[in-house]
Amino acid sequence: MQNASNAPTEAAFEVNRVSKRYGSIVALDDVSLSFPRGSTTALIGSSGSGKSTLLRLLLGLEWPDRGEVKVDGHVLEKAQVLALRRRTGYVIQDGGLFPHLTALGNLGLLPYHLGWSRDRIRSRAEELAALTDLAQDVLERYPAELSGGQRQRVALMRGLMLNPDALLLDEPLGALDPIVRHELQDQLKSIFDQLGKTVIVVTHDVAEAAWLADRLVLMRNGKVVQDGRLEDLQQRPVDPFVTHFVQAQRTLQRPSA
Amino acid sequence: MKRWIVLALACLAISPVWSAAPVRIGSKAFTESVILGEVARLAARQAGVAAEHKRELGGTSILWSALQHGDIDAYPEYTGTITHELLKNLAPDADIPTLRAALKPLGIGITDSLGFNDTYAIGMREDRAAQLGISRISDLLPHPDLRLGLSNEFMDRSDGWPGLRQRYGLPQTQVRGLDHALSYRALASNAVDAIDLYSTDAEIPYYHLRTLDDDRHYFPHYDAIFLYRLSLEQSSPEFVKALQALSGRIGEDAMRQMNAMVKLHGEKETVVAAAFLGVQPDSDGASFWSRLLQRTVEHLRLVLVSLIAAVLLAVPLGVFAARSRRLGQIVMALTGVLQTIPSLAMFVFMIPLFGIGTWPAVAALFLYSLLPIVRNTYTGLVGIPPDLRESAAALGLPRGVRLRRVELPMALRSILAGVKTAAVINVGTATLGALIGAGGYGQPIVTGIRLDDIGLILEGAIPAALMALAVQGLFEGIEHWLTPRGMRLEARQ
Predict the structure, then answer these.
(1) Same-domain check for residues B231 and B175
(2) Taking every annotated instance into account, which residue ranges of this chain make up the domain ABC transporter (chain A) (predicted)?
(3) Which residues lie closer than 8 Å to A91 by C-beta, 6 or more apart?
(4) For the residues B372-396, what does the mean pLDDT come to?
(5) Residue in A102, A110, A145 closest to B396 by CB
C-alpha cells in the first residue's frame, strides 16, 4: 500500500461492477464500492445478501464472474494473492482456529513460515494478548480448551500478527453470548481506533455496525441498497426496506398486550 | 519431525539383508517333492557343492517359472507333468531323450529317471470298494452318486480330472476340490468316496486303500527326474554330476518308504534323505526359539517393507484424490480393483515380474495395502471443515505449507487408521508368502497342512495372530503419540 508516489489513490479496496453467482443463486449483482484507506465500514444485510462473498472477493478467496477487484489501485491478480492475504487480517465467525495447534501455535503458523524466531513470535503474541485483554496462560491452550470469547480474541490476534494494513471481519462476534459480545464490541472499537487500519466488518446487527463503523453499507439480494451513516439510513432511507431492516432490530421493551 | 525420523530409522533397522546365493534347489508343496529336494541338496553337499533348498514353493507353475527365470537352479519334476503341462506340443508318452531335446532350447536340462513312476491313481477305501464291487476305474460308471474329493491341481490340469472324466465317461457330479494332504482324512472319515492319489503315497497301505486299475490306460507315465538349468554345466559341473548320479537309484518301494517315514512316522525330510544317501544329516541346530526368531524377522520384513512402500505412494495418491475429486475416484476405483484379486492369485501374478522369494510377496502385499491408506487419506482430508481449510488459505500460507502444517496433521488420525488396517491385513496375508518362497510364519503352516500336523500349523498361526494383535496395539500407541493433543480434545461449548 506504499504506492503513494505514483497514481496516489485513497482507496485500499475497490470493486467495480462485480457480479458473482453460484449456480442459479446470484450472490453479487453489479456492485461497485470503494473502501478508503483507514476507514471503518460495516457491511450489513440479511444472510444471503452477498456481504460475505464481497469480503471473500477482496482476499482472492473467490473471483468475480464479471467486474474487477482493485487493491491499492491495482486490479487483483492471482500472483499477488499470497502477499495481499499476508497484509490483510481475516477473522471469521468461529475463529477458524486449527484444532491441532495451541493458541500460540495458531498465532505463529504464518510468521514461523516467514522465518520469525520463536522468541519473536512469543513476544509479538504477548503484545497482542495485552491489546486484546487475553490472559497470557491462554496462549498455551488448544482451541478446544478456549471459551468462545477467547477463541475470537486469538483469531483476531492471528489476523494482527504481521501488523497488516487492513482487517476484514466476517461476523466476528456472531457466535458469542450477549455479555461477551458486548464486551468484545467495546474492545474491537477501541482496537480499531488505536490501530487506524482499514477495517471492513460484516454483521447483520445494525447496532453493532453503528457502534463499530462510521459508514454502513446495507445490502440485499446481491445489491447495495444504501451506503451512508446510520443517520442517513434512519432519516433518509432510499427504500422502505432500509427502514424495515433498521427497525427490525428490537430495542429493549416488553411486548404490549 | 523428530518422531518421524525415529520411526523411519526403526523401520530401516529391520530392512532386508541380502547374501550371495549358492545353488538353489526348489521343491513343490508336497512331501515327496520336499524329500527329493533334500536328497538333491545332501547329494550336492556330498559332492562338495554349497546348495540350499527352497522348499514347498506351491505348485508346478511356480516352480517352472522360477526355474526359467533363474530364481532356482533345479527341482524334482515328473515326465508326465512336462508333456502335459509344460511343453504342450509333445506326445504324452514322449521318452526322456525327446524331452531332453525339447527342453534344451529353453536352457533347461533333465536327468534320467530317478527310478520310480509316481503316476496319478484313483483310490477308495478297501471296505467300500469291496462292498460296491469296484476294482477298476470303469467300475465307477454305474455309481453316479459317488462323491469325489480331488486335489485342486488334479481338478484343473488337462491330464487330470477333465481328461479322465472324458476318457471313461464318468457320470459323477459331486466333485469337490480338496488339498491333497486333507483328502486322505476326508476319505477315512467317509466325507468322500474316492480321491486322486499318487502311486507312491505312504498313506495307501496305512489307510487300507484300494487303488483302482486304470483299465483304459489314461494316466501317463510320471517318471521322477530332476530339471536343472543348463548353465550349471559351466558354473557348477559337480552339482550336475551329483544330480545325474541319482538316476536309477530310487525305486518305487524306496520312495514309498521315505514318504511313510515322513508322513506317518514324523521323521524330518532331511533325516530321511540322509539315511537314504547314507550320509550324516545336518546337525539340526535350529531350536524352536531360533526358528521362531528367524520366521518373525522374515514375516516382519514382508509386512514392513510393503507397508512403508505403500505409505510412500498411497498418501500422495490420497492427497491427489482429495484435490482432484474426479481423477481421485478413478485412483480409488483402481486400488479397489486390486483389493478384489484373490491373494494367492496375486502372489502368483507377481512371480513373472519379481521371481520367487521376498520381493513378489512384498509387491503383492504392497498392492493390497494401497486401498486402505489411499481411502483413509482421502477421507481424512475431505473431512476437514471448509472454514478451516479457507482460514489456512486466508492466512496467506502457500499450498504446500497448508498441506503439511494444517491439512495432513488434521487428517493424521484417519491416515494412521488406514495404515493400521493395512498392516493388520498384511500380517495375515503374508502367511501365503511361504508358498512362493518368502518364508515367514506361513512356512510351518504350509508344512503343517502337508504333514497333517496341527502342532506345526499352530507354530505359524499363533505367532501370526499375536503379531497382528501387537501391530494393532503398536499402531494405537503410534496414533496416540503422533496425534496432537488438541485433536483429542472435545470442543468446549
Answers:
(1) no
(2) 13-246
(3) A152, A155, A156, A158, A159, A167, A168, A169, A170, A172
(4) 93
(5) A110
CA dihedral of residues A209, A214, A220, A222 (deg, nearest 10): -110
pLDDT tens digits, residue range A98-116? 999 999 999 999 999 999 9
In chain A, domain spans: 9-87+201-247
Q: What is the pLDDT of residues B38-79, one digit of tens each?
A: 999 999 999 989 999 998 888 898 899 899 988 899 999 999
> What's at A219, amino acid-wise?
M
Name the residue type at position A160: L
Domain boundary among B185, B211, B237: B211
Instruction: Output DSSP code: residue B71.
Output: S
How far apart are the CA of A155 and the nearest CA of chain B, in angstroms? 10
B487 and A143 within 8 Å at the Cβ level: the answer is no
* Residue B481 counted as domain residue: yes
pLDDT at res. A116: 95
Among the ranges given (A4-13, B36-45, B457-466), the one the predictor scored with the smallest mean pLDDT: A4-13
Q: Tell me the C-alpha distance between B467 and B462, whole Å.
A: 8
Q: Out of B394, B397, B484, whose CB is closest to A113?
A: B397
- Both B294 and B431 in one domain: the answer is yes
Question: How does pLDDT run across A22-62, given as a tens digit for each residue?
Answer: 988 889 999 999 999 999 999 998 888 899 999 999 999 99
Say if the Cβ atoms of B484 and A101 lie within 8 Å: yes
What average pLDDT does chain B have? 88
CA neighbor of A183 nearest in space, from A147, A219, A145: A147
The DSSP code for A173 is T
Does ipTM surpass 0.90 in this model? no
Question: CA distances (Å), A151 to each of A42, A154, A155, A251, in order?
Answer: 22, 5, 6, 28
Are B387 and A146 inside 8 Å of each other by CB? no
Distance, in Å, from the CA atom of B118 to the CA atom of B177, rounded to the nearest integer, reads 21
- Does domain A9-87+201-247 sit in CATH 3.40.50.300? yes
Asked whether the predicted pLDDT for residue A238 surpasses 70, the reply is yes
CB B184 within 8 A of CB B195: yes
B392, B394, B401 ranked by CB distance to A59: nearest: B394
Contact B489 A98 (CB under 8 A): no
Q: Helix, strand, or coil here: B66?
A: helix
